[in-house]
Design brief:
alpha/beta, Rossmann fold, Arc Repressor Mutant, subunit A, 2 domains, 6-stranded parallel β-sheet, about 15% strand, elongated
């Protein structure tokens, strides 16, 4: 426990030990901030938040067992006054919007400068909204995301999973040329020049989300 004045208690959840160690080193430079507990997943964070009632909870967005957005919702359901900041390396606009809508106050990328992370922490502690510029740009892009048909989205979901055009054609029951036609439309609307770029842009804009299953006709299977 740091001495001299009231110390702000922080709970930090991230599944990577090296990230937790890095934030601890950063926080140790601040006289009035202290990480009092660490969690490796969202479920553990929810339990510790209930036990410790920290002044601030910092959550990685993508964690095993329970993701940061779900953990945030559970923490806020138990304690509506909880202050939560997301610290993430990658997030789609839909991920961030979902978390912000649930009551999370801020979101900042992990590779932000130290002063930006501290600024985000202090803003969140004051009850202020704080979103780092990179994440704000992602949200802005999402707001202007071009319309794609459900078939085009399904094809991009399968592209993101690594399937080639022939495989996708067999899975969704259309010709290879049909797949290429849908991808051409998606390329044009997204401003992409390749299958990989189109899938990446669709993920970033929140048009499709990581882990989302494509709808496969016939046997009603999903992939």
């Amino acid at each position: 426990m740091k001495s001299g004045h009231k110390t702000t208690k922080i709970l930090f959840a991230d599944d990577h030990q090296i990230v937790r160690e890095g934030l601890i080193r950063l926080i140790d430079r601040e006289d009035d901030l202290e990480i009092v507990s660490e969690a490796e997943n969202g479920s553990e964070a929810v339990r510790l938040a209930a036990e410790l009632v920290p002044d601030l909870v910092i959550l990685d967005l993508r964690m095993p067992v329970m993701d940061g957005a779900t953990a945030a919702k559970k923490i806020l359901a138990a304690n509506p006054d909880a202050k939560i900041l997301l610290l993430t390396s990658f997030a789609t606009a839909s991920d961030i919007n979902l978390a912000l809508e649930s009551g999370v106050l801020g979101a900042v990328v992990k590779d932000s400068p130290s002063e930006t992370i501290i600024k985000a922490i202090r803003a969140t502690l004051r009850g202020e909204k704080y979103v780092s510029p990179e994440i704000a740009a992602t949200i802005t892009e999402h707001k202007s995301a071009p319309p794609l048909s459900e078939r085009q989205k399904d094809i991009l979901r399968l592209v993101a999973k690594g399937f080639n055009n022939d495989e996708i054609a067999r899975m969704i029951g259309i010709t290879r040329h049909g797949v290429k036609a849908h991808l051409s439309i998606a390329f044009e609307r997204l401003g992409a020049s390749s299958r990989a770029e189109a899938a990446s842009m669709a993920l970033t804009m929140g048009i499709i989300t990581p882990g989302e299953r494509a709808r496969i006709p016939g046997a009603l299977k999903t992939v």
